[in-house]
Design a protein that fits this description.
The protein is of the alpha/beta class and 405 residues long. The protein has ten helices and 19 strands. Helix 1 links the parallel strand 1 and strand 2.
Amino acid sequence: MPKPVFVPDVTLILNRFNPDNLMHIFHDDLLPIYYTMQQYSDLDDEARLVFMEGWGEGAHFDLYRLLSSKQPLLKMQLKTFGKLMCFTKSYVGLSKMTTWYQYGFVQPQGPKANILISGNEIRQFASFLMERLNITREEFQMRTVTVSLEEQSFDSIIQIISGASMLVSMHGAQMITSMFLPRGAAVVELYPYAVNPEQYTPYKTLASLPGMDLQYVAWRNTLEKNTVTYPDRPWDQGGIVHLDKEEQERILASKDVPRHLCCRNPEWLFRIYQDTIVDIASFLDVLRESLKKPNLKKAKVASTVHPGRVREPKCQTSVQATNEAKLSVSWQIPWNLKYLKVKEVKYEVWIQEQGENTYMPYILPHQNYTFSENIKPFTTYLVWVRCIFNKNLLGPFADVLICKT
């Protein structure tokens, strides 16, 4: 064997999802990296990130540098260290606890079925990043400031957004910056002609997470005369001239892009790459209608105490017959339950067969339960448990239980 080169740092080895797209950088990389590092005490500021997907640095590599004091390593750089590298201590992969959106690879895009993150975690991450960028909050009067990723530095844009009362933007990756808005601010998302706001909602979902405390407004261009299309561009920039005449005519006549999967649907690309002339009168109408004064009673909910984690979750299994098994789960109450006056306490249990995408959710009144329906012998199940106060105050999930029947 060749002589090994030892990497002395504790490392987090991962694949980035799409390092050229700001939405993906935050949603799929930075937030998951930050919270994966929070889970392990030795993944601290001295830990090193190692990106193994094989791409170059990408457009916003400086953002990844903020997560650790050490320079991240790319796969292509590892070759220069020798043929055999030995990582003395490493963690592989990312927790996806923080993601709230799926992009449409298996079914049309939309919010994830089981969103585990709240606005509190996103705001904690946003504060951490602003601290690393040396950004201090400023107070602005209600004036309009235009920002552009092409013309300004990323940290100067965040500086402005963090003190803004309202963010107005066309639908696009740059809207991920709405996570830096202060509580009570408004997010106004503009949609081009024939693009249905209800079908493309990563930023609406973000603004609606409990604890984000953002008002969300969607405006849609309904006037075909106010759109500028580019049919002659290459297909990946929305061009359609490569399609047969009949398909081109159908797309041009369509008033609504049908539901579709990611990522090469020509009608979606044609519409999302068009330019929009915003009709000011209808835009202001939507703002006036949507941005009522915030309900102060509702605003107080964010300060309500949520349940802590359930304690000492355990599982036991038994096999009755070749096609029959039982799975018993038990846990202790959250630490803060005995200090609170709570009308209704329930527990939510999720059971997922290892390797499957779907899970079975149960709402239970007690601290233990034996499941037999849909439980198979000689199978590994992943089980999550959390406490719920008064129907809508959700606690965090306890660490996953791995139960083998």
